[in-house]
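Hello Y.,

Per our agreement to keep a running log of every chain we model this quarter, I'm adding this entry. I've kept the format consistent with earlier entries: sequence first, then predicted structure.
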Amino acid sequence: MNDQKPLKEKRYRPNVAAIVLSSKYPEKVEFFIASRSDIKDAWQFPQGGIDEGETPQQALFRELKEEIGTDEVEVVAEFPEWVSYDFPEVIAKKMYPFDGQCQKYFLVRLKPGAKINLETEEPEFIHYTFVPYQQIFDYITYFKRPVYKRVLNYFRKKGYL
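Predicted structure for the entry above:
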């Protein structure tokens, strides 16, 4: 007799994420990272949910405008797959009914003259900076590191970074 309970199927929130390069790209490769307003010392790339009827690219531009105050970017490349990760328990409670996120990643470059403004309608970030590749993982919150490494390694291998 099998006493094991069936595993519940995990639910992932459809999401986009933007790896934002400064307008100095490709001469200088600097990555935008920001510190969340709701979780102390949690640095990440901009990201957000995909609304019903929205394409990933439409969500990308909307989320950038909502989170960093500008959608003045050029899409450099798109990661060819959807990438999933599970939320840590403390975040999973807040994100119920989702167990994690399934994300589409875009590599984008800020257009010259684009102005970042974190004082948006619903601020998600309190600080931001641009860092070289070697410093990204000194900042990024622990549970996002494996996904970030996978996506960044792909863009490096393809010659974008």
